Structure formats: C-alpha cells, structure tokens
Amino acid sequence: MLSVSPSLRLLAFDTSTESLSVAVCDGARVLESSGPGGAQASSTLLPMVLDLLHQAGLALAQLDAIAFGCGPGSFTGLRTACSVAQGLAFGTRATRPEGVPLLPVDTLLAVADEARHVAGLTQVVAALDARMNEVYAGHYRFVDGHWLQEGDFDLLAPEALAVPDGWTLAGNAGAAYGARLAGAPGVAVLPLATAMLRVAPQLLAAGLAVPAEQALPRYVRNKVAKTTAERMAEKAAAP
C-alpha cells in the first residue's frame, strides 16, 4: 500500500462524483469524512474541511499541500473542488507568501489506488460513470511501488471499453452500466480523499504540485450543454 509520509501534513478532497470525500493527514494519523456530493458539495465541502483541520489541530498555512480531485468527473464537481482548493491556497498567502501548493490528482488514479487498497489489485481499468451513456476510463499498473498510467484517459460508450486479461475493472461504472460493460461488476470503489493522500507522495516527488493560479480541472468531455443557437440550427436542419 502506498503510505503517506509521516512528515507530510496534507489535506485532500474530491467532489467529482455523487459522493463528497475529505481527508487530512497531520503527519501521524489520517482523519476522514464523507457525505453527499453533487449539488450539495458546494455548501458542505468547506465546513467539512475546516472541521477536519480543527480536529487535526492544523492551520491551513501549516499544510505541505492541498490535494484535490481534478478530473475527470462531474463538471460542476470539478469546478467546486478546484475553486475551493484555490481559495484555501490564496487565503494562506497572508501568512505564507508563496501560499500552500496545490496538488491536482487524477480521479481515475485515485480509483486505481482505492482498488489496490481494498482488493490488492495492481492492474486496474479505472472507470467512472460519465453520464450520457459514456464512461471515463484509464489503465493503471502498480510497479515497484508506483503507479504507471498506460495511455491517456478515454471517454467512450460502455460497450467499447476493453478490460485486458489479467486486469480488473474498478470504479462506479460497473454499477451504472452492468452487462453493457466488459468485466462488470468488477470492484466498486470511488476516488476517495484517502486514496489521494496515499498517492500524494509519489506526485509530490514528481514535482506535480502547482501554485493556486495554475491549478485547473481536467476535463475529458469538452462540452455537455448545447447553446440555444446550436439547438435551433439542429432543429432547422432536421428533416
């Protein structure tokens, strides 16, 4: 299991799915909390973060990094996580000029590590429900204590996702699409904040932490809603 360095003080949270997950590592222990995500995340995330920091006896400016689920996932959820992370980091600049660095964590990587944490998997096809009859997917292998991603993220129909021999499907896509998805049901896990804490040392060592102004969500689907003009054009072109 990837372990959190005992010297690191980290905050992590994810709002990319219908579940909200928050965790804090104070250097010696991990505290976690969860709740409903979706539309409620924008109002409950910050109080949950502040409560866990209070329990840990940590001030924001004492953190070594703030990790957040950058995507793929719900557009609204990704924007919520990124904006809260940026706000927290900017807020620390009053006492820490450079601010607390932010660590964007791919949600599919968190899914892969959660699958390894609960089921010992080392070859994972991480897949999350992307709605609109599609899934977000990524292939991950755990080698020599580190995760390696094979290829880039995919956005595709459930039937088009291949699960190679020796690999295991993990995430929430199996529950959403059932028999339409190869390898379903697989291992039902979510991109939890505790998984982000476990992968944080690897990502920090790779230099992937960024200042608040450079932190961005990672969208895989470029667009969900059509403009009024686009809908009118499609209607006019219809036979």
TrEMBL record:
One of its GO terms (biological process) is tRNA threonylcarbamoyladenosine modification. Pfam families: TsaD. Residues 42-182 form the Gcp-like domain. It comes from the Bacteria. GO terms for cellular component: cytosol. SUPFAM superfamilies: Actin-like ATPase domain. NCBIfam families: T6A_YeaZ. This is tRNA threonylcarbamoyladenosine biosynthesis protein TsaB. It comes from Pseudorhodoferax soli.
